[in-house]
Amino acid sequence: MKITGVELRRIAMPLVAPFRTSFGTETTREVLLVRVVTADAEGWGECVAMAEPRYSSEYADGAADVLRRFLIPVLPGQADAQAAGRAMEPFKGHRMAKAALETAVLDAQLRARGESFGSFLGASRDRVPCGVSVGIMDSVPELLDAVTGYVEEGYLRIKLKIEPGWDLAPVRAVRERFGEDLLLQVDANAAYTLADAHHLARLDEFGLLLVEQPLADDDLVQHARLAKLMRTPICLDESIESAAHAAAAISLGACSIVNVKPGRVGGYLEARRIHELCRAHGVAVWCGGMLETGLGRAANVALAALPGFILPGDTSGSGRYYATDITPPFVLDDGHLPVPAGAGLGVDPVPEILREVTVSAEWIAL
Ligand code: SMG
Ligand code: MG
């Protein structure tokens, strides 16, 4: 494939409501989009790095810099996305930047040959069940209103963000209001330490599907200890940046479920490897989210249609995030989103909308 150039485009997308987690509050999603242009087609990749390095060490300006200086320059001469991914390997880390570029190359490659992401990745379904991630709120009544709205929209699973001081009471209130049949889980974004094990074990009485990333990103050993001290299954998010990390976590007993986020692990090819590894070990996976626009969502929904993705993902409809998405919106139908069937991502940005939200654009000719 002959890549003629790459565009780095920054957009700013106001969220419909602030999203608060244990590490900060998002009100506008600043996104870096990567567009790869080849002789036959063009492809898009959405970088999931946030504006500030709070979820992980990566951030949007840093991703743009490493793409510009080191990653985009390796593209000439690469035959396909797999080769491009291998060529980026000598540069350490920066997985979100790598994922965005590899995804854009893969999209261009698949569009050129008329194959969808779902078909390429090995999707076994044409729609996926969806959950929603609910931020930390100022009060329990406010949280119950928000959850009521999502349940009425048809979301099949609710995830509550927790932190010290906002855990047992909100979880208890949601469980009491919606009953034991509601699929419910929590996400701490690394806000606790092993010294909180006794407190965290009190979550066991609420019949949660899982507790996501309770402890520090780099602490598999302590997660393994915590797993022995509570009944609720431990799911890792931030800790898993590659298939090798997933293998280590599984063999240590640090988790029994994995949140797969393609951006966090360096792309959809590595995400698929993690899916295969987990499936071979009987470890459930589900697809996480990073407040993606329709471009990132399209690829995530395709990934979530693989057979090992047995739990509903954080693949919510566009309206949960944005009043106007940059693609035609993903709309929940009976709690599910359809897997795009068109070539590549199967969705395109709407030019006028993309123009309106664009902050800057830079063309790098190759
Ligand atoms: O895309 O619906 C979404 C967000 C899901 O909670 C979500 N993501 O740790 O899983 C997580 C967070 C990370 C991003 S929070 C700004
Ligand atoms: Mg998480």
UniProtKB/TrEMBL annotation:
<dbReference type="InterPro" id="IPR013341">
    <property type="entry name" value="Mandelate_racemase_N_dom"/>
</dbReference>
<dbReference type="GO" id="GO:0043748">
    <property type="term" value="F:O-succinylbenzoate synthase activity"/>
</dbReference>
<keyword id="KW-0479">Metal-binding</keyword>
<keyword id="KW-0460">Magnesium</keyword>
<dbReference type="GO" id="GO:0009234">
    <property type="term" value="P:menaquinone biosynthetic process"/>
</dbReference>
<dbReference type="InterPro" id="IPR036849">
    <property type="entry name" value="Enolase-like_C_sf"/>
</dbReference>
<dbReference type="InterPro" id="IPR010197">
    <property type="entry name" value="OSBS/NAAAR"/>
</dbReference>
<dbReference type="InterPro" id="IPR029065">
    <property type="entry name" value="Enolase_C-like"/>
</dbReference>
<dbReference type="InterPro" id="IPR029017">
    <property type="entry name" value="Enolase-like_N"/>
</dbReference>
<dbReference type="GO" id="GO:0046872">
    <property type="term" value="F:metal ion binding"/>
</dbReference>
<protein>
    <recommendedName>
        <fullName>o-succinylbenzoate synthase</fullName>
        <ecNumber>4.2.1.113</ecNumber>
    </recommendedName>
</protein>
<keyword id="KW-0456">Lyase</keyword>
<dbReference type="Pfam" id="PF13378">
    <property type="entry name" value="MR_MLE_C"/>
</dbReference>
<feature type="domain" description="Mandelate racemase/muconate lactonizing enzyme C-terminal">
    <location>
        <begin position="140"/>
        <end position="233"/>
    </location>
</feature>
<dbReference type="InterPro" id="IPR013342">
    <property type="entry name" value="Mandelate_racemase_C"/>
</dbReference>
<dbReference type="Pfam" id="PF02746">
    <property type="entry name" value="MR_MLE_N"/>
</dbReference>
<dbReference type="GO" id="GO:0016854">
    <property type="term" value="F:racemase and epimerase activity"/>
</dbReference>
